[in-house]
Give the backbone structure.
Amino acid sequence: MSKKNGGKPPLSYQSFLKLAGEPSWASSPLSITLSSLPPVGNTGNCNISEVPTVEELGYEETQQDELSPFRGGETEALKRLRESIENKEWVAKFEKPKGDPSAFLKPATTVLSPYLKFGCLSSRYFYICLKDLYKNVKTHTVPPVSLAGQLLWRDFFYTVAFGTPSFDRMRGNKICKQIPWNDDDELLVAWREARTGFPWIDAIMTQLRMWGWMHHLARHCVACFLTRGDLFVHWEKGRDVFERLLIDSDWAINNGNWLWLSCSSFFYQYNRIYSPISFGKKYDPNGDYIRHFLPVLKDMPKEYIYEPWTAPLSIQNKAKCIIGRDYPKPVVAHDSASKDCRRRMAEAYALNQKMSGMVSAEDLRNLRRKLEEDKKPEVENKRQRKLIG
DNA sequence: GGTCAGTTGTTGTT
DNA sequence: AACAACAACTGACC
């Protein structure tokens, strides 16, 4: 069957770099000659409206013990940029996958994304600063992992989002795998409200609610958990939550990363699932991050803090945190849930391949039914095996 | 049609 | 700290 009717592969980062090349302005000296700006007060033909209030934007005044530590504005943005690039060695050695997602007192990245998103910081200025720094060091990392590479990822997602109709949806999106996601609002709400019963996941979702920002890898963990890793909830639902709560949410980057993490596009190794128990542990064995964002667990011994439901009742009593009363029981069993997700992803991929990407709503309904039916015989088989054995 | 690489997995072994 | 096994995806390139 011809591939031209659907299932179009997305642009790759490497291809994007080749196509884009190095922008002409990148080689200009740091003192860029600015094109002339209109005088202050001259707004040309722009229609100026009042800046809406926070309430008008739909954000209610909420009671919160802790607020985002990140202040807005250009002054703050330039200060942050200066502080980041002052440490030349840190910038030169920056490799995105190697940051600590549990670091919150001093985040492992620049946290310049909110300032880029609101236009408080010029991405070109940031890029030129990095190029200038690279010139003055012996060695430095390179895209995709370098700090400059991160800015290029931003442009990569802008480019592919611009060129892809229905980029922010599964249906009608040619680069998006058609996957029979659950429509389970209970699981979605548990995830959104930080009560999945997995402290690592809930701490991250709490940081999202309080700070509007969390480390990139932390975002990966919760996005994987919601979609292909454990809950099998539609990535569009998670995307909506991020779009609402992140202070750096950016339409193209947010949608692009949800497509990525849900293995719907760009990335396809659905066997690689972040463990909601062991992933955080390797960075933060004591669970300080969890203790900070989920104070209800602050006295749980470190042996149990990532899996408090396994703590003996005496320990739970001593920690003043009874699982099921003070902190929720896990909404799923990770081992079986992730296995089931793998099975569903394999079936969905097979269907997409068979249909060359042209998977209809009915095809998905049929696959959902098949996946449910396949589950039943498995239980039957187990019973049979037991009887025989 | 085969090979190889791909920004960020996990578990277990040496 | 580095490696293989796990099970095996896609897309670029030949």
In short: DSSP finds 16 helices and no strands in chain A.
